[in-house]
Specification:
Two copies of one chain form a homodimer.
Chain A (H helix, E strand, L loop, with lengths): L4 H31 L6 H19 L2 H11 L10 H17 L3 H23 L3 H22 L9 H8 L5 H26 L14 H15 L6 E5 L5 E5 L2 E6 L6 H20 L15 H15 L3 H14 L1 H4 L4 H8 L13 H19 L8 H13 L25 H21 L2 H6 L4 H10 L9 H8 L5 H13 L2
Parallel strand pairs in A: 1-3
Antiparallel strand pairs in A: 2-3
Helix pairs in contact in A: 1-2, 1-3, 1-4, 2-5, 3-4, 5-6, 6-7, 8-15, 8-21, 9-10, 10-11, 11-17, 12-14, 15-16, 15-17
């Protein structure tokens, strides 16, 4: 073979770009399925998604890629591990080997099933009909079990959960998470109890449940999104049953939310969360689209961005020092007489509740830990789908002291499992832990962030994140990326400090 | 080769279905481009469209299809030309041979260019900036010239226009259209003059330019769309710069419109037009999706459906006998005091105007004839893109007696050329001619259609169209399909009769 490593590398990148383009077509169809597709389109959409997933898999497992990787891997191109080429080759090799283990039929079946199951989930949730959704959930866990078995080589052993988790958070392991979450639980449960007792009898978040007309919520949310840096010429905001962010590629990033006229938090912090994801997507280097260096490195790092903007920034006093006056003007009936202090106490109100996406910062990770434990048990066969509603109630009673009255506010509340996202939930908590470190470091590096926020200038933080996180793509493994960007910090400690200032805990 | 004709036929159908599925993915992306895509997404979308078009072309020209066609073509399967198999094989053979003549690079270049050009057209039109759009138009006509040259075999000769026309209306020829349009022009120009003179000084369509709030227009248009049979569980209505209908496949058909608060006709008859297309798409047999028998036969036949519902039905007295009372309730400020007679006179008002999609039934075909003449001249090099605005004005002055003040209301008004749709316009007039025949025949076959319309029951007509047109897909060539369904009828005669009843012409 007379091909030079350089031309092999270029062909590798061209092929990767084509795969990414196909993936971005699937992303458009997936976005449409959640936003605008009529119910009657579900079967066709499932077939379309299966076809695209199959084509993508065909391309991603093409033997030519193996040949090209063999030429480049041992070459001078990969000699300096700090070079762009070495990083791209390392990650393309990882993707290729992972893909090779998955049979095309399974990939197509998963794409079709999860497309259909998401439509079924929307209906089942709105009708509170777990029985309707049960067979879909069983099928998805069965398919994901097969996927996990394919990904684990005979020698590796380990948990069935690990190969799925590794898809979202390369290098993460269930056994490490178990220990981490054990510690977190031990710290969070008493902290929540203390704050709840201290604030008992206070107004809580009652002011946030006044009338917030949805058209005004949209105006305010878009103003804030644009204000912190989300570029609406390269993205948009739509409504879905479950909020998400989908970065199609350079110049097109879609975020979604849902509006409740009587709950300010739901849409507002949901938008800010998705904006955090969107800023990461919009911060990837357009010229690197389709190569690993132009892709987000992990969901944990993705969540570190969303949770950082949602909580560390978006529930802070400096942020609202700037936005509270505008909120009072737009929602003059609801907020006309509400002071900044009262508003801050409301948006930081701590109260064990049933719905994860509406949870406060302190209880949020307990929702995640419950899902992590349940999905592991479902995957490993220690829990039957039949017994999920009861197990859900039991875990909520134990960790949060609340029990869902319906499955819609219980195990049907999240879209993730219907979409085949098993092993995704723990990345939310990893993201929270990363975010605490990043925010502490940014404040240290940038000096007086508070007064720039209070003046409505969020660009110093965004620029810092662009430099420390966004622009690197998949150059470093996620844990290393964060270690390079930030020193240690304790999430629980930062929460304690916030609650002390707000509630005198 | 030991393959049986039956299994070759089945593989052919499976391959056709896969191509159709890929095409439907492009359709979703095309729809999104027009409806919701942010401006920044244009380049990525162009690349996505080019990739999908290239993949589809690869599949459609796969040598395997030639082998399969060779096995089936001479077999007993194709012996009875009335059989499903014979019709499918005939049409698949036509598609394959046509596709084989197009180089993949040209197909991809056309997909990318027209995707980008559509975004540029939206901007150029809104800014009235012909110079901005000019290079795109030049490039598109150049690419279409190449396409035409590829499609014409050395021996066929004929007009450069014919191979492009044939894509939309199989069997149609420019030379035949020239004669047909000559006659039509000779009849329509004096008819328009007569009606205009007779109705001079009347109220015209002034009542339709009162305030019709767009949210109410949407409610009314959707009510009528559903009322005539458009199934919103298998479709939806969105807003775009240029109205269109895109049938993705079984269960998912998207129509679009644009609202002008001060022009009732624009959105309402636009929706009814797209609904006509949508009813055809929704009337194709779902089980035949991806085979020629499950596809619309031609744009002329498609337009016969849209124009039939828009005009023959939607501008008639029986139709409004049912819907006028509802319109008066919803638009009580604009229509509270407007009688059925006055309303009918308004929606049938004849007046030479600049915008095709707002034109009345009588002048509409003159708009088409102008476009047909201009696009032929552009394609054949008899007219330079540079000279298009002047030629446009000259033709409008000659045929309609009006001259656009801006290019936005002149040669930039239609999306078609930016989308590469050269040879498409004449199918509107063919559709009008077909529709006149179909409607006359339906009235003959079904008896008292008027009283069923007046009672709000449009199902007899829809059922008749389903049986005569929709369910056949591409079983018969378009001209034959219409000849089988309907006897002769004169469009101009039916217009004369309508104007006599309404205006005493």
């Amino acid at each position: 073979m007379t091909m030079t490593p350089q031309s092999a590398y270029e062909e590798l990148l061209a092929r990767a770009r084509k795969q990414a383009l196909l993936g971005s077509c699937s992303a458009v169809l997936g976005w449409d399925e959640q936003t605008y597709m009529p119910a009657g389109g579900a079967t066709l959409r499932g077939d379309q998604m299966a076809l695209l997933a199959g084509l993508q898999h065909e391309q991603a497992t093409h033997p030519r890629i193996g040949e090209l990787l063999a030429i480049t891997a041992g070459s001078s191109l990969a000699a300096d591990p700090r070079s762009d080429a070495a990083a791209n080759i390392r990650e393309l090799d990882r993707d290729y080997k992972r893909r090779l283990r998955l049979p095309q039929a399974l990939v197509e079946e998963l794409a079709r099933t999860t497309s259909l199951a998401q439509s079924e989930w929307v209906i089942a949730r709105s009708k509170n009909d777990f029985v309707r959704f049960k067979p879909w959930l069983e099928k998805i866990f069965e398919l994901k079990r097969q996927e996990s078995a394919c990904l684990r080589s005979a020698t590796e052993g380990g948990s069935a959960y690990d190969p799925l988790l590794d898809e979202y958070e390369p290098g993460a392991q269930a056994s490490v998470l178990v220990t981490l979450f054990q510690t977190l639980k031990a710290e969070l449960v008493p902290l929540v109890q203390t704050v709840v007792e201290r604030t008992r009898g206070s107004a809580g978040e009652a002011v946030l449940k006044r009338l917030y007309p949805r058209d005004r919520q949209r105006i305010f949310a878009e103003a804030v999104a644009a204000g912190v840096g989300f570029d609406f010429t390269r993205g948009r905001l739509d409504e879905t049953a479950h909020p998400f962010c989908s970065g199609f590629g350079p110049g097109d990033c879609r975020i979604t939310t849902r509006f409740d006229d009587h709950h300010f938090n739901d849409a507002f912090f949901g938008v800010l969360h998705e904006v955090g994801h969107g800023l990461y997507e919009q911060g990837l280097e357009p010229a690197r689209f389709g190569s690993p260096l132009g892709e987000a490195v992990s969901l944990g790092v993705h969540e570190s961005q969303s949770r950082l903007w949602e909580n560390a920034v978006g529930r802070g006093r400096p942020f609202w020092g700037y936005w509270h006056p505008l909120a009072r003007r737009i929602f003059h009936e609801a907020l006309g007489g509400v002071s900044l202090d009262a508003f801050l106490a409301a948006v930081n109100h701590v109260e064990p509740s049933l719905i994860r996406v509406q949870a406060d910062e302190a209880t949020y990770n307990l929702h995640i830990i419950i899902r992590f434990e349940l999905e592991r048990a479902l995957l490993e066969g220690d829990l039957l789908v039949d017994d999920l509603p009861a197990a859900w109630s039991e875990r909520y009673a134990a960790l949060l002291g609340v029990v869902p009255k319906t499955d819609a506010e219980g195990c049907l509340q999240d879209i993730h499992w219907s979409a085949g996202l098993i092993g995704y939930f723990p990345t939310y908590t990893l993201g929270n832990l990363y975010a605490a470190r990043l925010f502490k470091q940014a404040r240290h590096d940038l000096g007086d962030l508070d007064s720039s926020f209070a003046a409505g200038d969020f660009s110093p933080l965004l620029t810092w994140l662009r430099g420390k996180i966004h622009r690197h793509g998949r150059r470093y493994p996620p844990a290393q990326l964060i270690d390079q960007a930030a020193g240690p910090a304790s999430l629980v400690e930062s929460l304690r400090q916030k609650y002390q200032e707000l509630f005198g805990v």
